[in-house]
Amino acid sequence: VAVVSYCVQSHRYNIVENFGCSGSPWMDVYAILGLHGSPVLLGAISFVYGAIAIYNFIAQRRRFQVVLQQNSSLNTSRFVRLIGVAGVNIVISLLFAIRETVLTSHSVYPTVSWDYIHYDFDLVFTYDSSFLLGDPQAWIELNLSRWLPCVASFIYFAFFGMHEDMLSYYTYVWARLSQALLRTKERIFGQPL
């Protein structure tokens, strides 16, 4: 994807005030297929595998209980979390990949030569944030590209960082840190707290 993004990059990048850098692809057929095709393809593959996993889990729940009891590293709660991540992945990854592809495919440029696309390649366009007031779709796109990775991180943490094993580990780490801090304060101030 990095090679394809360089091949269809019309200039270095854009800078949008209060948002930062953004890419500058020349949206021709190759850019649509190369940049947006792989997320749609991977989202479709994960959709199929996730749907199969959820279907098999629901259809053969009793057999899963026996398998999960035999495997000590995988218990029911971990497996249900994995199924939950598969369900969330189905909804988020495929839908947003298709949405992004449809929105960008409305303005497809003609495919031209390498020299034409990369002419004056070191150019950097700067935009103030006032242009976003007139284009709410651009504002939504910039915010989605900024916040979707954060939302995905919180979802992943909610599934795997908030179960019983991790909560007990957090308690253990907190106890160790507080003991170390108290010992440090005793050494600095010379008296027990």
From TrEMBL:
Stretch forming the signal peptide: none
GO CC aspect terms: plasma membrane
Superkingdom of the organism of origin: Eukaryota
GO molecular function, one term: mating-type factor pheromone receptor activity
Subcellular location: Membrane
Membrane topology according to the record: Multi-pass membrane protein
Transmembrane segments: 40-58, 79-98, 144-162
UniProt entry keywords in alphabetical sequence: G-protein coupled receptor, Membrane, Pheromone response, Receptor, Transducer, Transmembrane, Transmembrane helix
Protein's UniProt keywords contain Transmembrane: yes
UniProt record, GO biological process: pheromone-dependent signal transduction involved in conjugation with cellular fusion
InterPro entries for this protein: GPCR_STE3
Keyword Membrane applies: yes
Family membership: Belongs to the G-protein coupled receptor 4 family.
Protein name listed in UniProt: Pheromone receptor
Source organism (scientific name): Phaffia rhodozyma (Yeast)
Record lineage: Eukaryota, Fungi, Dikarya, Basidiomycota, Agaricomycotina
Gene: STE3
